[in-house]
Amino acid sequence: MEHQADNELLQLFKNGNSHYAFNLIIKKYQQRVYTHVRRMVIDHDDASDLTQNTFIKVWHNLPKFREDSQLFTWIYRIATNECLSFLKNKRKRFFLPIGDVEGELSDKLAHEPSLKGDAIEMKLQKALLLLPEKQRLVFNMRYYNEMKYEDMSEVLGTSVGALKASYHHAVQKIENYLTSD
Amino acid sequence: MNMNQENDNELKKNAPYLASLEKKNSFQAPEGFFEDLPSKIEDKIQEATTEKKHTYVSLHYVKYAAAAVVLLVAGYYFYPSKTIPQKNTFTAWNVDSLTDDELLDEMSDFPIEYETETVVSNDDADIINYLIDNKVDITEINGI
């Protein structure tokens, strides 16, 4: 499906067709946002809620969007914040140390139908859960989403140099985990 | 060199095993999920807007309800003091029903204000002078 350019969608939004434009924005970005969120929270229902919350925030804040960043990095930033807040609240609510939240996510992985019978993929996903949250975000954005460091920098508010270092560390850790017995 | 090639080369150099793996999207959404998602989001936005209006309306009424409660509480404290007959109220019906002793008893509790200017001294001479000044016939008083 062909999607309209971001600047056209924003123009449409400003010209009074806000609901129609917003609908097109959802359709354009929903899969990318969902996948980005799902990789962080693993569970489909949680990912669905967070994706919806992300777009609700997009709707409420779009009139204030100043276009000094790209629409898609702005949406990614909202989605990323949603994920981080969700995981933080999860820890607070259950007084869980980091390991326990990752343990819970690991259990969810074990019940993921698409991973059953794929030992290598399961091992890769488990390796990812061992990374600190922000390093996992960096890895996902670079490895899976193939984002430029400059765009990642806009989303995460971190310098390009720091992101390169973080990705390098993440890759090393995963490689070590995958190649160990 | 495009971004993907750059990323691949970077990966091959740092993590050859990881670079050899096929990239998969292991987390597929259920069938039809993305067809329904836009309307779900729109519905939630509508719901939130309606809820906001309802909350505003309820708060509007809460304002009046709170005022009514304040008036009721105030009424409870102040109304009885104006309507319940006090022990010291001097009305015809209770005067009639009282004995002399009871009446004196009641009157001793009841504050009577005197006009200090009209109060006369207990001194007899002062009384007589007062009566003369006011042209009161003393014989008339004596005859009482």
Descriptive overview:
The complex is a heterodimer of chains A (181) and B (144). Chain A has a domain at 1-95: RNA polymerase sigma factor, region 2, helix turn helix motif (Rna Polymerase Sigma Factor, Chain: A, Orthogonal Bundle). Chain A is globular and about 60 Å long. Chain A has helices at 6-14, 18-41, 44-61, 71-94, 98-110, 119-129, 133-144, 149-156, 160-179. Chain A is 77% helix and 0% strand. The N and C termini of chain A lie far apart (44 Å). In chain A, helix 3 (44-61) packs across helix 4 (71-94). Chain A is an all-alpha fold and 181 residues long. The model of chain A has no long low-confidence stretch (mean pLDDT 91). Chain A contains 9 helices and no strands. Chain B is an all-alpha fold. Among the domains of chain B are: 36-84; 92-135, no CATH class. Chain B is built from 7 helices and no strands. Classes of the chains: A mainly alpha (181), B mainly alpha (144). The interface between A and B is medium-sized, with 40 and 28 residues.
